[in-house]
Amino acid sequence: MATASVELEAQMASVNAANNDERHFLERHFQSSNEKGSTCVEDIQLGEVNTAVIANEMRGEEANAPERIIDLVADPETVEANRKLLGALGICVVIILVQAAFNFMLYMRRPDAIVIDRTAGGDRVVVMNNRKYGATDNVRFKPDEPSVGDKKYLATRFLELYYANNPDIRDRQLNEAIGLMIAARGREFFEYLRRNRILESEATESWQATWTPQQTWIDEADPFTVHVIGTQVLTRIVEQRAVDETRQLNITVKLSRDELGRAERNGRTGYQVTWFGWEELNAPAPPTPSQGQAGMSRAGTSGESSGG
After folding, report:
1. How would you label 249-271 residue by residue, b for 16+ Cβ within 10 Å and e otherwise?
2. Cβ atoms of residues 301 and 231 within 8 Å
């Protein structure tokens, strides 16, 4: 009994000793942890204080420091290269402008004339680059201007359009003939044809005619008056029969200078028709038995003076 009590006391003593050791370990561990935590807090606070002190010192230095002046200096070699490039660019621009002006001048200038006289003895240059190298018997060089030849051509062309009836293109012939006249005279001439029913007769009887000029000359008293003697051979269909008639006419054509010079409306002659009148030089030849006795009126075969 006594032995059991001793053993029980020994066990209790060992348990208490173990508990005391554990308590002492925990106390030492907790104390060590508190010491370390306080040290970290102190270090953090000390770091914040040092940062604030450093920031204040830097602001103070910046406030006390003088203002900085930045002076930009370019590379001298770069400046020289840019100057040379700008100079070369300016020279190129000047060359381009001069070339453009020269090309425009060549475009606006009249082309140079080259006249070559081709003969059996060989070719001979008369004019080259607007420079005369001598005259020949076959070529004469002078400024272009309306001449006597243009007057004769215009009168002959106008009479051919009016008297050489072609039923296939008659409308075109009359339009071109009226176009060669002064506008006011052309309208009067058209009214004359319509009023005398000449256009209707030409279409109804299917007029076909040929015109052959025989003589053309300029009036000595009036250089703008052209006289033409020609023959008209007219074929008409009358009562289902073909009737041929030949008339010789002496025609006077009055011209005037066109203010536009040589133009399409005057056939590149420089003149316009003012009026024209005619007279018959011989009576019509008597028709053959196959042609019948149909006659031709004066108004139908002629171009009465459009100017009255």
Report:
1. bebbbbbeebeeeeeeebbebbb
2. no
Gap between the Cα atoms of 177 and 155, Å rounded: 10
Residue 46 one-letter amino acid: L
242: left (phi over 0), alpha (psi -120 to 50) or beta: beta
Amino acid at 126: V
C-alpha–C-alpha distance, residues 120 and 233, integer Å: 42
Supply 258's token pair.
Answer: 């066109």
Tell me which residue has tokens 């009148």.
277
Average pLDDT over residues 41-66: 56
Beta bridge partners of 208: 235
Q: What domains can be seen in the chain, in order of their start residue?
A: 148-301 (3.10.450.230)
The bridge status of strand 225-238 relative to strand 241-257 is: antiparallel
DSSP three-state, residue 124: strand
| Spatial distance between the Cα atoms of 227 and 254, rounded to a whole number of angstroms | 9
For 267-306, write each residue's pLDDT tens digit: 889 999 999 998 998 755 544 433 333 333 333 333 443 3
